[in-house]
């Protein structure tokens, strides 16, 4: 065990020696570290959770355990591990537990460490950590930091440009980068080597489906699970119901389809957006729109005859709203009016609808403009909301219609 812990220390020190992009965050990391609560960093695989944890702790005396290690899991002995940590990291102040959900009954062990006064930073790639394990054993004991792939601003940071203050000579490069981000996403591993996007994300997608879903849930029918994942990524931004999916894919049971959909959300691969309705029962019955955590997965895995720039931009805006803290349970929905006009995003705070957001890649055609404006205005009337925004690729103006002022904004400013 001591050898395993010592090898992981070498791994930690090697990771700390690398150069990293400091991610944008509204949180004060030093203030977080001073809190006795558990710091839980969650998000999809390979988005930089471990890096964020290492950057938080870089100048501190901290111990490190990486649970993406079979030797550690195979020879696990909690008491022995704690003794070895004291040997290898004398006097450590913080303990970083990386991908801790791989350890059986990890939540009970973490709870015990918390009671003993250990200052813990833990990372995990599974939303279920929050919904069940964290919520039962660790209620009120943790602060959550959610990580996602690079935002558009962070992608520009990486390329040493300021998205909000592009100089005239940088405009052309900025346009290329913005277009590249929309098509290929922001996974940290491939922002520096775009030629690897498809092969890297193809492998990562399969790894999430097999390792984080099939293996974790002992799924026997992996072919059906994989077919569903490919169908969802190919139909991103479309409304889908479990009934339609089970018929379309020839699954034996709607319940299995629902179960598989939930499994695919757990590792933050897909999100499902409900249709807004004041009546909860009707909201549950309506089809949900499906979104994927990064546009690069569409490029890598979707069966598509042609790329749909409108849907790629909509998916990008959805993930940006998730990044800002909106969630698909309480604060973000889509909406269809009584005349079947649709608005992409209804953003809510408590009982109050604060904003309607429509996404349209190119609104230069009068016919397209009329369709988008009519839709958002009709929905605004039914939902009693005056704060209306249409996000486009690069247009910026204001439109007045039926007493409503609609802000048209390019995605770079949104």
Describe this structure in words.
By secondary structure, the protein is of the alpha/beta class. It is globular, with a radius of gyration of 23 Å. The strands form three sheets. A six-stranded mixed β-sheet has the order 9-10-11-12-14-13. Strands 2-3-4-1-5 form a five-stranded parallel β-sheet, with helices on both faces. The chain has a three-stranded antiparallel β-sheet with strand order 6-8-7, sandwiched between helices. It has 18 helices and 14 strands. It has helices at 2-16, 29-34, 49-57, 70-74, 78-88, 106-115, 128-137, 152-158, 171-184, 188-191, 197-215, 222-234, 242-249, 254-265, 280-285, 295-301, 309-323, 366-383; strands spanning 38-42, 62-66, 94-98, 119-124, 142-146, 239-240, 270-273, 288-292, 332-336, 342-349, 352-359, 388-392, 397-401, 404-410.
Number of helices: 18
What about the largest sheet?
Answer: 6 strands, mixed
Mean pLDDT: 93
Beginning-to-end CA distance, first to last residue = 50 Å
Structural class: alpha/beta
Strand content: 15-25%
- Evaluate the radius of gyration: 23 Å
Query: How would you write the strand order of the largest sheet?
Result: 9-10-11-12-14-13
- Unreliable segments of 5+ consecutive residues: none
> Percent of residues in helical segments?
40-55%
Q: What is the 3D shape? A: globular
Q: State the total count of DSSP E strands.
A: 14
């Amino acid at each position: 065990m001591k050898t395993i812990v010592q090898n992981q220390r070498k791994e930690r020190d090697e990771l700390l020696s690398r150069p990293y992009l400091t991610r944008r965050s509204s949180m004060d990391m030093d203030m977080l570290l001073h809190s006795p609560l558990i710091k839980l960093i969650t998000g999809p695989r390979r988005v930089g959770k471990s890096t964020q944890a290492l950057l938080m702790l870089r100048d501190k005396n901290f111990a490190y355990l990486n649970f993406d290690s079979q030797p550690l899991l195979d020879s696990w002995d909690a008491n022995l591990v704690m003794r070895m940590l004291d040997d290898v990291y004398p006097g450590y102040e913080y303990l970083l537990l990386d991908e801790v959900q791989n350890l059986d009954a990890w939540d009970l062990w973490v709870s015990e460490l918390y009671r003993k006064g250990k200052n813990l930073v833990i990372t995990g790639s599974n939303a279920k950590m929050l919904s069940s394990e964290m919520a039962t054993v660790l209620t009120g004991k943790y602060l959550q930091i959610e990580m996602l792939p690079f935002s558009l601003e962070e992608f520009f940071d990486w390329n040493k440009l300021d998205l909000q203050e592009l100089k005239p000579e940088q405009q052309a490069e900025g346009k290329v980068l913005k277009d590249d981000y929309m098509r290929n996403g922001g996974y940290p591993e491939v922002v520096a080597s775009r030629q690897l996007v498809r092969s890297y994300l193809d492998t990562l997608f399969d790894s999430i489906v097999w390792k984080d879903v099939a293996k974790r849930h002992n799924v026997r029918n992996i072919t059906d699970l994989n077919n569903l994942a490919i169908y969802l990524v190919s139909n991103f931004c479309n409304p889908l119901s479990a009934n339609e999916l089970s018929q379309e894919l020839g699954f034996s049971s709607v319940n299995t389809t629902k179960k598989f959909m939930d499994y695919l959300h757990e590792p933050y691969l897909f999100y499902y957006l409900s249709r807004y309705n004041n009546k909860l029962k009707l909201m549950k019955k309506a089809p949900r729109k499906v979104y994927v955590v990064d546009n690069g997965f569409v490029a890598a895995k979707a069966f598509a005859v042609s790329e749909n720039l409108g849907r790629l931009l909509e998916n990008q805006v959805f993930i940006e709203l998730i990044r800002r803290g909106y969630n698909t349970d309480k604060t973000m929905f889509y909406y269809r009016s009584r005349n079947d006009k649709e608005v992409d995003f209804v953003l809510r705070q408590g009982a109050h609808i604060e904003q309607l957001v429509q996404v349209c890649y190119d609104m230069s055609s009068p016919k397209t403009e009329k369709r988008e404006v009519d839709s958002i205005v009709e929905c605004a009337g039914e939902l009693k909301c005056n704060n209306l925004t249409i996000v486009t690729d690069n247009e910026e103006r204001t439109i007045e219609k039926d007493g409503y002022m609609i802000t048209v904004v390019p995605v770079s400013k949104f």
